[in-house]
């Protein structure tokens, strides 16, 4: 049985970037996954291929990547499974079109069949298209990945079809729904609203979570906890309007020295505390009603690694498995599994099954060295390269010398965490690395923490480990750094002494294990700072070209990509005459007059520059597209600065003129 699960929107109309009443979360985080006979073999997010974060576009490239990986013709796919129910999707599209004053859409079954057929240039029969309940897709993705034979499975997000959380009793191959909660009191929507009130944007709940340790939950505890009313059997009510009033009353959303102020941090801490209390209350009645001693977590809220750690410390469970791709992209895997009969491995005891068999490296393979060499040629005089036989040993040497590196090798991770295949790596000991990576490399807020990747056999000596068995190899829980080592691990210890720990075992992550071991041999430290390989304007890199772009537009010291070590040979202004650039395909010119030009990328990112500079930067090509460098520039410094800024923000793409 060959099945492809997918998430994302149908792209049946061109929704405006900003539309009153239309949620920006419309079928976000598009992805596709291939399962054969119940085994997940491949999965990739559309954003990794299109380079647009959280895209809700129909996952054309991701779907094609699935069949390419399996060397399959579309006619060989037995089932295409979508991650929401058909009736809900029909109703949702009709409502959105009505809000926008657009004609009613055709049935979603026809829309998706047409899009699938166009994607593969082949007719997809109606009987091969399936629709899967959203929370069931989430639950299956987590439970199957866990390797457990019996567990409670909690799905908690903004909303599925008409519910915001679902609790299942999973036993063998069966999922039995125990309870669910409606959308009116959605904890996902509550935390999203709190995030927005604190001054962050959509999809930035992880920043809000990272801000919480800077605050004092007790400062706003009375007001915040008064918004939560516990009811019998794990039920509850939430006062959403009260949350908005609380934020307004205390002036939440202010800044100090460019960072969220103390009251906003207190607000974040109190909201985090409410979330943890609410989820514990939701689970409590059901722990004793089943004999399950294991818990699986899925849905967007399960990306909250602080909440996950709190659940692991309750003592209610011997095992807690937090699915690494708990958000909507991961539901593409669950949709594929829902229509693909499961394999039947020998069951393992719940106390020892911690997702050790789950491999997160499900994405496309990095290109072979011959193709990487061709990509290196595109950047000509900007880089110096040399082939290396042992990238892990050479990378460890550079890290031990204090360099911060980009590292890309093998198949990419599926999920929001870089686990070593597409990572920025650094020495975790100097605290100054925390700020250097945040500001000069990741180009993001300085308060945000970084994760330690530690050799599994050394982790317990450095970090406090819970009694429950956890899938710590996937960076889905926080742990406390032991007090004696907090100063030593200054770049990965958060202000409250916590860290989002990744343990690295040779059996599940041999490449990163080898690199950390080589670093330990040189320094005595069995830990590296590990963060995703991207800047704040783009998703995690996928290809060698992505890695080179990010390397050249940040202050990374060195890049290891495949079998090559790459270093910078100069800044763009040093080689301006040899470079060419074009507007990114996702960029629109929103406003152009004699004074200024406004560019919008993917409907989300905006920049404005003087019209004379824009005219100097770009000229119409013969086909009417914007692109190519003008010759004889009068202001090379201004031009070089504009090229560097727009390239870093991904409004333009730059390459050598060869």
Automatic annotation (TrEMBL):
Residues 396-568 form the Carbamoyltransferase C-terminal domain. This is Carbamoyltransferase. Residues 21-337 form the Carbamoyltransferase domain. GO terms for molecular function: catalytic activity. Pfam families: Carbam_trans_C, Carbam_trans_N. Belongs to the NodU/CmcH family. Gene3D superfamilies: 3.30.420.40, Carbamoyltransferase, C-terminal domain (3.90.870.20).
